[in-house]
Amino acid sequence: MASSPPKNTLNSQQPSSLTRPPQAVKFGRRTSSGRTLSLSRDYDMDVPGDYSSGQNDYIDYTVLMPPTPDNQPAGSSSSSASTSQSKPHGSKTGNKMERRLSVMKSNNKSMLLRSQTGDFDHNRWLFESKGKYGIGNAFWPDDLDNGEGGVSMSDFLDKPWKPLTRKVKVPAKVLSPYRLLIVLRLVILFFFLWWRVANPNEDAMWLWGLSIVCEIWFAFSWILDILPKLNPINRATDLATLHDKFEQPSPSNPTGRSDLPGVDVFVSTADPEKEPPLVTANTILSILAVDYPIEKLSAYISDDGGAILTFEAMAEAVRFAEYWVPFCRKHDIEPRNPDSYFNIKTDPTKNKKKQDFVKDRRWIKREYDEFKVRINGLPEQIKKRAEQFNLREELKEKRIAKEKNGGVLPPDGVEVVKATWMADGTHWPGTWFEPKPDHSKGDHAGILQIMSKVPELEPVMGGPNEGALDFTGIDIRIPMFAYVSREKRPGFDHNKKAGAMNGMVRASAILSNGAFILNLDCDHYVYNSKAIKEGMCFMMDRGGDRICYIQFPQRFEGIDPSDRYANHNTVFFDGNMRALDGLQGPVYVGTGCMFRRYALYGFNPPRANEYTGVFGQEKAPAMHVRTQSEASRISESSDLESDTQPLTDDPDLGLPKKFGNSTIFTDTIPVAEYQGRPLADHMSVQNGRPPGALLLPRPPLDAPTVAEAIAVISCWYEDNTEWGDRIGWIYGSVTEDVVTGYRMHNRGWRSIYCITKRDAFRGTAPINLTDRLHQVLRWATGSVEIFFSKNNAMFATRRLKFLQRVAYLNVGIYPFTSIFLVVYCFLPAMCLFSGKFIVQSLDVHFLSYLLCISLTLILISLLEVKWSGIGLEEWWRNEQFWLIGGSSAHLAAVVQGLLKVIAGIEISFTLTSKSSGEDEDDAFADLYIVKWTGLFIMPLTIIVVNLVAIVIGASRTIYSVIPQWNKLFGGIFFSMWVLTHMYPFCKGLMGRRGKVPTIVYVWSGLVSITVSLLWITISPPDDVSGGGGFSV
């Protein structure tokens, strides 16, 4: 406005003093006759000196105001000093909006200041700007719509850009003391170990040496465990924003069809005897009923045993899903696992408002009970069917033999293969009940069966008579579901679960090619129907293209209330994993994880950093990862848009060599990469895709496509490829999950830990002591294998953050702590047996260090409980089982790993005897089952030796001439520390309460007394002078 001075002003002007500015702006109204009436209150205004100097933007301006009730003159004689007609400024093409908003747009507020106080007069501003509120999303004048300024009310009605996720930092009042205490304990540990080394125990150097070595290792192990916990964070998602961005009508999506990427859900099973088909069927039902666009979801089950029982159970599950899935959508059922839903203890009618809910629930419950009966009756039904078909075949062969032998059966009879038959009268191509060549667990053809077709793109609404249920207005489609059993032949290494998962990756890429893959164990079902959308918030948010997977915490059901063996593992899932999320991301734990398919293929992220320096404090972009600007230059030079180019920028990437000889499969790779990109709806989003790019329907499946999917699950397909080496799940380790996640982090990807308010998934865990120890043994064995392999974090690339490297290093080292832990558990007994102690005497220095170390550990643990949300009892159970597992399963894993590496000997700990639970009605009957295993030997030895040592130490001190009570109490204190940690192990061996005969306690006491007396006789106490009593 200041650059366009007006030509005309009001004629009636009063002179002003020298201290006042020239004539200021006048506000007026043009009458119907063309006259301009002044509406200004004052002709001259006193303006402070600060505003009188310099350029005045309001000088000689006339602002025309429309006639409104609040600016009408009092009467005809009230016309102010203006009689001349104001002419329009400039040409007729002048900017009308600038003229009308001249007051609001000017930075000079001299005319809007109160004359007495000098404050801004807001009321006058409203009066002198048409008596309205200006412009904005609260009010916009009608006559300014579609104005020459190009701005209208619709521009203000669009919702502002919002992120899909946000970080929720741990409060500083918790995190700052936590970090300070960690530093303080590190300093105390350093001085304590320095003091221990500088003050040896001359009376028992062997005890001193053993204890020093163990304590140094414990300090090192604690540092590896605590350093990655320095930066714990929480995260939150915004599902409403996800819905607005991807599932609402917009210019790029007029129909409001979902623009979310596809998701393929993998479920793996191997043996229907160990993994009941009913449990697996419930998991599949919970997947098919998730709250995600139906046409974008596909489910797959990998049956690595090729069992017809699993196959037919899945067929029954799909038929039941036709009623269960719409029922869940109609009444918003949670959880959507039918078995869990019908067993909930709360009121099922809570928050249910539809009048027919009770009727529908009663009907679907009856259908589910019939479904369970059919599933339970499948084994007998399949066997009877096989007997009938085999009998028919036998009669047929006999008839043919008689025709060829003149009406008489051959003397050697007729041999008929006892096959397993399908319901349509054909041989089952998988494993038979009586294994035969080409029909056994390790020798059968590949099987792929699409049990529910690809859903239609548009919703299919149900009617009032859908099997006695009214599904009017409810989408009755179900996602695509396929049964997969890869081919197995003798002489091939099938690589167990990792090989089965890679087979599903290839088959699903050809059939559905979802940009993301969610893998679940067969006993882990979807507990939160919106869990996939929660994970998608991270993948589709700004920077989501760098995320390789979203790990959800594992939650378990059916665990005893006291959680005797720390089955919930909350210290790991709510503590360690939450802390790793503040670094480069949590480790992959095998289930409940949503992968980016492109990252599974072994590609590098679109952007990555390299960390150099001693502690990785120097960060720089990775040189061989193409940046966004470079990608743009490359695409511009080739006349292609950067948003449509896949990030296949690795120069050494040879698709046929790495991925196999299926061109159909390799063609799906850039498609999956592009569909997995976040939405480019903001300038800060890099490597995004335009809105509305995923609205096209999937092509229908045809015979050649299914045939190609069967070909890629053949046992020879992975020959001369990098499957299992760089691509897909990594082979060569029992814990293939940890290695797979590590390789992704090592390439520069990051992962996210997604903790939802309602548990995303729930599963089962072994509550029996033996089963729990064998589970821990498998994990520890995999960690030892990682330590002795190229996947050791010491050989990681510079793309791995320093503290993330420390965390992965701890994964491979923690089982070796068991060696020092076992030695340390025997040290109190050795002290009591020998009458010596690990220090010369319990002086002030030792007790002060011990007190400070213990207090800092307790305070650190309390603060960790605070920011992680775990309970004190859960923390204590974890500490107890750390000692139990460390002295048994971890030690066995180290021995097994060393024998495998040094001598190539494979050792497996198997059950030698079993006993069953007596009470079948008890939900926790399995908790009391005692199954003997070799893993019990070392913890039992530790318990017995410490108990006997306490008796012997007490007897020695009592019968000595000069009792050394300080050493006795020191030894008893540490022995009780060991026995307290072993208490859950003892309860596990005792079985049910009161089941241990009294004679066991009697004989135990007699044996202990006898051994102690015998020890005193063989090695009597030393009659030395001095050293009696307490030395402080």
Assign an overall shape: globular
How many helical stretches?
Answer: 32
Question: What would you report as the Rg, rounded to the nearest angstrom?
Answer: 39 Å
Give the % helix: 40-55%
Query: Strand order of the main beta sheet, please?
Result: 10-11-7-6-12-16-14-19
Indicate the proportion of strand residues.
5-15%
Compute the average pLDDT. Answer: 81
What gap, in angstroms, lies between the N and C termini?
89 Å
Q: What's the number of extended β-strand segments?
A: 20
Please describe what this structure looks like:
With 1032 residues, this protein is an alpha/beta fold. It is built from 32 helices and 20 strands. The model is unreliable at 1-24, 42-61, 68-109, 626-656, 909-920 and 1024-1032 (pLDDT under 50). The strands form six sheets. It has an eight-stranded mixed β-sheet, sandwiched between helices. It has a three-stranded mixed β-sheet with strand order 2-1-3, with no helix packed on it. A three-stranded mixed β-sheet has the order 13-20-15.
